[in-house]
Design a protein that fits this description.
Blueprint: H1 3-19, H2 22-38, H3 40-56, H4 61-67, H5 71-86, E1 94-99, E2 105-112, E3 115-120, H6 125-136, E4 140-144, H7 150-166, E5 174-176, H8 183-189, E6 197-201, H9 204-213, E7 226-230, H10 236-248, E8 257-263, H11 264-281, E9 284-287, H12 289-292, E10 299-300, H13 303-306, E11 314-320, H14 323-333, E12 338-342, H15 346-355, E13 360-363, E14 383-384, E15 392-393, E16 400-407
Parallel strand pairs: 3-4, 3-6, 4-5, 7-8, 7-12, 8-11, 9-10, 9-11, 12-13
Antiparallel strand pairs: 1-2, 2-16, 14-15
């Protein structure tokens, strides 16, 4: 079946989803969660084949981690669907309303996009997250995962489609596109008029290709070169803990810290401790000359290092002379995803927050908190680093548009 044919079927499904009650959608989400648990063995069987092929193909440890499923990870996906069912339905929410001086009643209400295409790499959990959040927000989902996760995604989609249909909604609310050829991505990007919005989730090259080549409107989700700045007024014990959590809690996510900036006033006291902790954790530091002066294990950093989203046990590091220098460094190399400052100075925190341009700014907290679940949104569709329509973790409201409903009594414009 062609992508256009699948998109047409998705549009039919979206018509039913757009008018479905919250009770119906929530019942489908709960059915999806139950089905994931009941059919975990077949999901893990498909995933095991993908993981074995990935190892044979020489994928990195970080990529294999993203790809791998366990009973615990499947259970977590099911829990996310249940949490989503408990969240308010955004469809029909009145964003604003008023009675105009001429007596017209004006309401702006949330409505689904319609058909949402998602192009993603490696992570099978995106299949479930995307299907669930699209369904709850009244959208049909066209899912185009990577070939490396083809068996995992096929197993998950089969489970989800059966559950959706059993709950009384169209199975075509969730569809998986062919991942064996790039043609499906090209067709999806050209399906303007059939697909309402396209969301890429993956590495920089994937996102760049979709943004630049798509005729379908795109919401850009972000590459994460996230920084942690240790200010002159930082509590160094807190700084050590936050930097380690930001970098090592999970290496393969876009909200993992990839760059460390340390104020010169605390570099002598902080960097020896930090470099020792990194070494013990197996993290390679790519540092400037000032950082390298504290340890022979530091690898000299290049321009590419400072701009890198490693997704591995690597981090770039530099010593800066002021908060303003830290902000300039972030503006030059950052990706407007998540930036953090560690400081006990309220003034420094306020200045950092005011001058750093990012979807999320953390004060004395790990970069790993930039996440829909951690923000209380339920499962997210992605983290947007652009400024139009949505920015930051995209929960249910961000998967809607709005329309104006104007009610009168034979009102005429004069």
């Amino acid at each position: 079946m062609s992508v256009n044919e699948q998109a047409l079927r998705a549009r039919e499904a979206a018509t039913a989803l757009g008018t479905a009650t919250r009770a119906t959608k929530d019942a489908a989400l709960l059915a999806m969660a139950d089905a994931l648990l009941a059919r975990t063995p077949e999901i893990l069987s498909g995933n095991a084949a993908d993981v074995a092929a990935a190892r044979d193909g020489g994928l990195t440890a970080a990529m294999i981690d993203r790809l791998s499923l366990t009973e615990g990870r499947v259970a977590a996906m099911a829990d996310a669907l249940r949490q989503m069912a408990a969240l308010p339905d955004p469809v029909g929410e009145v964003v604003r309303g008023s009675t105009l001086p001429n007596g017209l009643e004006l309401r702006q209400i949330r409505v689904p996009f319609g058909v949402v295409g998602i192009v993603y790499e490696g992570r099978p959990n995106v299949t479930v997250d995307a299907a669930g959040i699209c369904l709850k927000s009244g959208n049909a989902a066209l899912l185009r995962g990577s070939s490396s996760a083809a068996r995992s995604n096929a197993a998950l989609t089969a489970v989800l489609r059966d559950a959706v249909e059993a709950a009384g909604l169209p199975a075509d609310a969730v569809q998986l596109l062919d991942s064996t050829t790039r043609d499906s991505v090209k067709e999806l990007m050209r399906a303007r008029g059939l697909v309402d919005v396209l969301i890429p989730r993956g590495g920089a090259s994937l996102i760049k290709a979709v943004v630049e080549e798509s005729t379908v409107p795109v919401i850009e989700t972000g590459v994460g070169n996230c920084h942690v700045f240790v200010d002159a007024a930082a509590d160094l014990d807190k700084a050590l803990a936050v930097v380690m959590n930001s970098k090592t809690q999970r290496l393969s996510t876009c909200n993992t810290a990839e760059s460390l900036l340390v104020h010169a006033d605390v570099a002598d006291a902080f960097l020896p401790r930090m470099l020792t902790a990194f070494a013990e954790a197996g993290v390679t530091v790519h540092g400037d000359a000032r950082v390298a002066g504290f340890s022979e294990a530091v690898v000299p950093a290049t321009e590419e290092d400072f701009a890198a989203e490693y997704l591995s046990a690597d981090i770039s590091a530099a010593v800066v002379d002021s908060l303003q220098d830290a902000v300039r460094h972030i503006r030059r190399y950052g990706t407007q995803h998540t930036e953090a400052i560690i400081t006990e100075s309220v003034a420094a925190a306020r200045e950092f927050v005011a001058h750093v341009d990012a979807a999320a700014v953390m004060v004395n907290a790990s970069t790993r908190f930039t996440d829909g679940g951690e923000f209380g949104f339920g499962a997210e569709i992605g983290i947007s680093t652009q400024k139009l329509h949505a920015r930051g973790p995209m929960g249910l409201p961000e998967l809607t548009s709005t329309k104006y409903v104007v009610t009168g009594d034979a009102h005429l414009r004069i």
